[in-house]
């Protein structure tokens, strides 16, 4: 027969359990895996980007060395070493690296969206002559005759399944226009800042 007084003593059973101030093994493992993945993202990134990331020299060297290794097993071991080096970083350094990688993703998404917009504009130019008129109104400095010839040649290339030489050249012209607009906007903004400073 069970004792009716059992459990009615003046303390709870968890009062004597030790309290830990440090993270659990599972939490440490999760943090370790996150740092390993962060290191792998840096290894997959282009070298010039990695060189610009603010981090200790030994970590950067480990990442750049790992990028040079093509042997499967050697690369796996080098990635483990990168993970080990990443675990030596403090929270602030890790946060800086994470922000940098996040900014790359945002920049590449913006670039992709910009390229898609240029492709749509090129398709409009090939499909509709009014699109050329609009483009020329926005950019009167463009060579009208050259653009018309390129559009005609691009249409012919598509119809005859030829290599897209004119098609690419139209894209390049649109891309150069976009760069020019950005640099003009940046110059105008700098001019406005200078005017504000003088006041």
Notable features of this structure?
Diphtheria Toxin Repressor, domain 2, 76% helix
What is the assigned CATH homologous superfamily of the largest domain? PSPTO4464-like domains
Shape label = elongated
| Beta-strand share of residues | under 5%
CATH topology of the largest domain: Diphtheria Toxin Repressor, domain 2
Q: Please identify the structural class as seen in this structure.
A: mainly alpha
Task: Name the average pLDDT.
Answer: 81
Helix content: over 70%
The whole-angstrom Rg is 30 Å
- Summed up, the helix count is 8
The CATH architecture of the largest domain comes to Orthogonal Bundle
Number of domains: 2
Number of strands: 0
The ordered H/E elements are: HHHHHHHH
Report the span from N to C terminus.
Answer: 93 Å
Tell me the name of the CATH class of the largest domain. Mainly Alpha
| Main sheet properties | none
Low-confidence spans: pLDDT under 50, at least 5 residues? Answer: none
Protein described:
This protein is mainly α and 199 residues long. It folds into two domains: 25-89, Diphtheria Toxin Repressor, domain 2; 106-189, PSPTO4464-like domains (Diphtheria Toxin Repressor, domain 2, Orthogonal Bundle), CATH 1.10.60. It is built from eight helices and no strands. α1 (25-44) packs across α4, α1 (25-44) crosses α5 and α7 (144-160) crosses α8. The model has no long low-confidence stretch (mean pLDDT 81).
């Amino acid at each position: 027969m069970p004792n009716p007084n059992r459990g009615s003593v003046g303390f709870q059973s968890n009062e004597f359990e030790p309290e830990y101030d440090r993270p659990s093994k599972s939490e440490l493992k999760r943090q370790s895996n996150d740092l390993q993945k962060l290191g792998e993202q840096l290894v997959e990134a282009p070298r010039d980007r990695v060189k610009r990331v603010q981090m200790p020299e030994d970590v950067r060297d480990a990442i750049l060395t790992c990028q040079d290794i093509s042997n499967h097993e050697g690369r796996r071991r080098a990635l483990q070493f990168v993970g080990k080096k990443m675990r030596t970083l403090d929270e602030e350094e890790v946060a800086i690296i994470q922000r940098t990688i996040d900014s790359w993703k945002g920049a590449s998404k913006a670039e992709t969206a910009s390229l898609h917009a240029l492709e749509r504009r090129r398709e409009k130019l090939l499909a509709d002559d009014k699109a050329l008129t609009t483009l020329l109104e926005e950019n009167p400095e463009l060579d009208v005759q050259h653009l018309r010839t390129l559009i005609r040649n691009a249409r012919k290339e598509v119809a005859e399944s030829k290599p897209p030489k004119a098609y690419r050249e139209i894209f390049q012209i649109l891309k150069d226009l976009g760069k020019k607009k950005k640099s003009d906007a940046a110059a105008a903004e700098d001019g406005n800042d200078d005017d504000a400073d003088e006041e």
